[in-house]
From TrEMBL:
One of its GO terms (cellular component) is nucleus. Pathway: tRNA modification; 5-methoxycarbonylmethyl-2-thiouridine-tRNA biosynthesis. InterPro entries: Elp2, WD40/YVTN_repeat-like_dom_sf, WD40_repeat_dom_sf, WD40_rpt. The keyword Disulfide bond does not apply. SMART domains: WD40. PANTHER family: ELONGATOR COMPLEX PROTEIN 2 (PTHR44111). WD repeats lie at residues 36-67, 262-294, 315-346. This is Elongator complex protein 2. It comes from the Eukaryota.
Length: 481
């Protein structure tokens, strides 16, 4: 209880905080207040929406949570809050990918991927809380969007709730309540118009997103998923100890059909990344190798990818599991980070040899090997080049000990020179994670979410999540790097 007895804070079984405040007029009335919330177990993945206005994270606490900046009329400070919990699942969540703005696909410790789409009630409340006008958010087909979603008493799938479904419940007398079916009503969802972040009880049942598709095809628990930049193809992989289970599956993001199975790796593929120009798909694996897949000319059934480069036991540089990978914004180079503490940038270093046929020999390490000092669990390259006059890339590296370090890398001549890597910032312990960094994700555009400097190129934001249950957002001044 607060010292002046006007507020009560409580901690719930599900790791949530509750806050109630005594009403000023009627002292017997207590109202729920905005309170901080977050995951109560390891956070496995985090992604920005393509417009950079919110982030979605998934965790081993079996939830998918959406955080956005709350814009208050009189306040200048922008604070971030959980404004929706699109998925409350029965399996530990593992990974997610955004498919456009208000749609995502997620994977958990189960064999199916699930696709979710934002309901109308979310878009309206998102507009109220963030101050972004509805016209900017809504596309033409918003009229047929469901209001919200609900989970049947014994189910796992979020079912859409449409306007007609929310009939007024008749007043219950004791007899009707005592029948089992009335104690567990089919529809818990109640649309609310929010102007501030919702309290916990509302997050649990009124902010679910309808599940619109399941993708069946993997034989074991889903481990990673990615979507290309034109939102047409999804790539996913599952846990595997044999080559036949380690295949990457490509799905159409329009028809949801299986397009292709890409077999190469012998063990679990740990991360997938499409190049910014969508011409390549990169995979890194527990088998210490990476594979690069090139998009062929589109056939009737959709794009077909074929393996154009890879490492094997003779050409591999990493000696332990490769945990993470990413692309430079110009699609020229890609980066890999491994448990062996090494970070390496790869590409066609000798660009004078532009033989289309033989890419395999031309993709080599373009950087010196960076020793990050501890197992590398996450890497991400800033999607905006820091300056145009010379090409240097800003790389965020997350370590198993929780540290996040920012480096710059610049290509130097034909042979990698000694000083191609420069450490810019090593986050101090109070800013870093306390346990392993699980994912790093830069905002796709310059500027800070929720601020009016959306187009100013000075600031960039980096989201991170870790095994210490935390999601963090860093403001990075790129001119200071």
């Amino acid at each position: 209880m607060s010292p002046d007895a006007s507020m009560i804070a409580a901690h719930a079984f599900h790791g949530a905080l509750h806050l109630w405040k005594q009403a000023a007029v009627n002292k017997k009335e207590w109202t729920p207040e905005v309170v901080i919330s977050g995951h109560f177990n390891s956070v496995e993945d985090v992604k920005w929406d393509p417009e950079g206005e919110f982030i979605i994270s998934v965790g081993s606490d079996q939830t998918t949570r959406l955080f956005a900046p709350w814009k208050r009329k009189q306040e200048t400070e922008v604070t971030w809050h959980e404004i929706a919990r699109p998925q409350v699942h029965g399996y530990d969540m593992r990974c997610l990918a955004m498919i456009g703005r208000f749609q995502f696909v997620s994977g958990a410790d189960e064999k199916v991927l699930r696709v979710f789409r934002a309901p109308k009630n979310f878009i309206e409340n998102f507009s109220n809380i963030t101050g972004i006008p509805m016209e900017k958010l809504c596309s033409h087909q918003s009229s047929d969007l469901p209001e919200g979603a609900t989970v049947p008493a014994l189910g796992l799938s979020n079912k859409a709730v449409f306007e007609g479904d929310m009939a007024v419940q008749p007043a219950e007398d004791e007899e009707t309540f005592n029948t089992i079916s009335n104690q567990y009503p089919e529809i818990y969802f109640q649309p609310l118009i929010l102007t501030e972040p919702p309290p916990e009880d509302h997050l649990l049942q009124n902010t679910l997103w309808p599940e619109i598709q399941k993708l069946y095809g993997h034989g074991y628990e889903i481990f990673c998923v990615a979507c290309n930049n034109s939102n047409t193809v999804i790539a996913s992989a599952c846990k595997a100890s044999k080559k036949e289970h380690a295949a990457i599956i490509l799905w159409s993001a329009t028809s949801w059909k299986k397009l292709q199975s890409l077999s190469f790796h012998n063990l679990t593929v740990t991360q997938l990344a499409f190049s910014p120009n969508d011409k390549f798909l990169l995979a890194v694996s527990r088998d210490r190798n990476w594979s690069l897949w090139k998009k062929q000319d589109s056939s009737e059934s959709g794009p077909v990818f074929s393996c154009c480069a890879y490492t094997d036991k003779n050409t591999a540089v990493h000696s332990r599991i490769i945990w993470s990978c990413d692309w430079t914004p110009d699609s020229k180079y890609f980066i890999t980070g491994s448990r062996d503490k090494k970070v390496i940038i790869w590409g066609q270093c000798n660009l004078s040899v532009t033989t289309e046929g033989n890419m395999l020999d031309s993709i080599k390490p373009c950087s010196t090997v960076l020793d990050a000092g501890d197992s590398v669990t996450a890497v991400s390259i800033m999607p905006v080049l820091p300056s145009l006059h010379y090409c240097r890339y800003i790389v965020a590296v997350g370590l198993e000990n929780g540290k996040i370090i920012l480096y710059t890398w610049k290509q130097s001549g034909q042979e990698p020179a000694l000083a191609d890597w420069t450490m810019c910032v090593e986050m101090d312990n109070s800013r870093s994670h306390a346990l392993a960094v699980k994912r790093l994700c830069w905002r796709h555009h310059a500027g800070r979410a929720g601020h009016n400097d959306q187009n100013s190129s000075e600031w960039l934001q980096l989201a991170s999540c870790g095994a210490d249950h935390c999601v963090k957002i860093f403001n990075v001044n790129r001119f200071a790097l």
